[in-house]
Amino acid sequence: MQNKNSSQSLALVYVWSKKIRLFHWLNVLCVFLLITFGLIILNSKALGVTSDGKVLLKTCHVLVGYIFCINLLLRYVLGFFGTGFEKWSATLAFNKGFAAELKEYRQGAQKAYQGHNPAGKLMITVMFLALSIQMVSGLVIAGTDIYYPPFGGYFKEQIAIDSTQVELIKPYTKENVDTEKYKAMRDLRSPFITMHVYSFYLLLLLIPLHIAGVIYTERKEKSSITSAMINGYKTLPKD
């Protein structure tokens, strides 16, 4: 961080690596598609979607979800083993001295931040939490609803009347399904549904706040933070 001064000469500083930028934009695309499918699924009854149509929508939702999960898991690995601003210590709101940094920022200190400013770190931390909840709960729901990996095979075996014919169990059918065991499975998944829905609503709140924060920070710091997520470079004072 450096004090900003209009008389200072500026330089392009490489901040966001290709890996970070690829994660960011792939995550944007996946979240957009998942929200779109999710909204249609939530309102499928009002939209008159048939059972087969609902299964197709959920299948598309899950397939995009796999890409989302892989992308997020690779970001976790990068956070622990990456370099520079790929590391969690430079990204999340838990690094040493963060409280003092946030206090200074709230008092209106004019700083140029190479990575995220303190408000940005808080936003990123909450967003990663919401995304992580979506990932875990989504995988459980996929396994208990349309029997997709990684948990689908396990749950099929748990609810099967004849465990040697689990392939007969299909979404929204009762063939080879033990009614009591099926009900127990649905009870087990209930809290995951709640987590998935509420973290979904949280993301619907966070996304516009994130965009608004980027616009505000772009105007305040004038450090090209928007284009930096495309080309990797921020405009900062040379010193």
Automatic annotation (TrEMBL):
This protein's record includes keyword rRNA-binding: no
Instruction: Kindly report the protein's main subcellular placement as a broad class.
Output: membrane
Which keywords does this chain's UniProt record carry?
Cell membrane, Electron transport, Heme, Iron, Membrane, Metal-binding, Transmembrane, Transmembrane helix, Transport
Membrane topology, record value? Multi-pass membrane protein
The membrane spanning regions, by residue number, are: 22-43, 55-78, 122-142, 198-217
Localization annotation: Cell membrane
Q: Which InterPro entries match?
A: Cyt_b561_bac/Ni-Hgenase, Di-haem_cyt_TM, Hydrogenase_cytochrome, Ni-dep_Hydgase_cyt-B
Sequence ranges assigned to domain Cytochrome b561 bacterial/Ni-hydrogenase in this UniProt record = 15-232
The record's section on Pfam families has: Ni_hydr_CYTB
Keyword Flavoprotein applies: no
User: SUPFAM superfamilies annotated for this entry?
Assistant: Transmembrane di-heme cytochromes (SSF81342)
Its family remark reads: Belongs to the HupC/HyaC/HydC family.
Task: Identify this protein by name.
Answer: Cytochrome b/b6 domain-containing protein
